[in-house]
């Protein structure tokens, strides 16, 4: 019979029997025999993640200094896709590669995933849907985000097809990700509201709002391009 206990930080945890490991993830009966607590605090982990994003943005700004003709929105979109590329390919790719041992991982990426998993423990239990979704995100969305950023940087006509494909993939993945757990009442999230609204909803919300915005932008650009070609063809036929 499971016996709830309280661990450091006031989080309720569970010990299934005398040999099982205490953990703070929901459902509390989730078996995580290889779980090892994080050695870094939540503020420290969030700080490390923020520093990583700032470092990526700094490199992006250095590259953009060589392209002064790019407009503000093009530069902002370039930086967005560079950040997406690093998160999708490296951070989410790390999860895919280490999902079986993530609960006991002490590397900084592993500890970040364990912190996030307080809002969705499926990441520590090798949930089939989450694993396949993250695999697709790492091997498709990541490279496509870099390809989109490169197309923006070079002013390539591939920019909007790439931007549309990447944004649709991001949006589709997040809609499925949200719905597969919200449909059941988010049973994998701790009851504290900041995990649900802060980690699960807010952090993932970037990959809903921005893909919708950029997808609409690309649809409009592609529509205008096709309309111009059709108008040009019509003039040629009448001349």
Automatic annotation (TrEMBL):
A GO BP entry: sterol biosynthetic process
Keyword Thylakoid: yes or no?
no
Q: Which GO terms describe its cellular component?
A: endoplasmic reticulum; membrane
Query: Which GO molecular function entries does the Swiss-Prot or TrEMBL record give?
Result: C-8 sterol isomerase activity; cholestenol delta-isomerase activity; steroid Delta-isomerase activity
Q: Which Pfam families match?
A: EBP
The portions of this protein that span the membrane are 45-65, 77-97, 129-153, 194-214
How is this protein situated with respect to the membrane?
Multi-pass membrane protein
In the UniProt record, does the keyword Isomerase occur?
A: yes
Q: Which InterPro entries match?
A: EBP, EXPERA
* Name of protein: EXPERA domain-containing protein
Origin species, per record, is Dimargaris verticillata
């Amino acid at each position: 019979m499971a016996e709830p206990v309280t661990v450091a930080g006031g989080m309720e945890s569970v010990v299934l029997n005398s040999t099982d490991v205490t953990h703070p993830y929901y459902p509390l009966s989730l078996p995580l025999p290889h779980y090892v607590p994080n050695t870094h605090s939540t503020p420290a982990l969030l700080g490390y993640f923020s520093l990583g994003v700032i470092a990526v943005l700094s490199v992006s700004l250095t590259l953009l200094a060589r392209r002064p003709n790019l407009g503000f929105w093009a530069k902002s979109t370039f930086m967005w896709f560079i950040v997406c590329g690093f998160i999708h390919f490296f951070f989410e790719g790390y999860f895919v590669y280490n999902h079986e041992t993530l609960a006991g991982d002490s590397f900084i990426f592993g500890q970040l995933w364990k912190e996030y998993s307080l809002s969705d423990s499926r990441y520590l239990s090798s949930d089939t849907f989450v694993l396949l979704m993250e695999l697709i995100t790492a091997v498709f969305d990541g490279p496509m985000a870099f390809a989109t950023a490169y197309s923006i940087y070079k002013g390539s006509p591939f920019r909007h097809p790439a931007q549309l494909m990447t944004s649709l993939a991001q949006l589709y993945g997040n809609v499925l990700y949200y719905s597969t757990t919200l449909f059941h009442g988010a049973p994998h999230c701790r009851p504290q509201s900041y995990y649900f609204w802060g980690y699960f909803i807010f952090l993932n919300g970037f990959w809903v709002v921005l893909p919708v915005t950029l997808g609409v932008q690309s649809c409009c650009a592609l529509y205008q391009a096709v309309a111009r070609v059709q108008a040009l063809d019509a003039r040629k036929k009448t001349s």
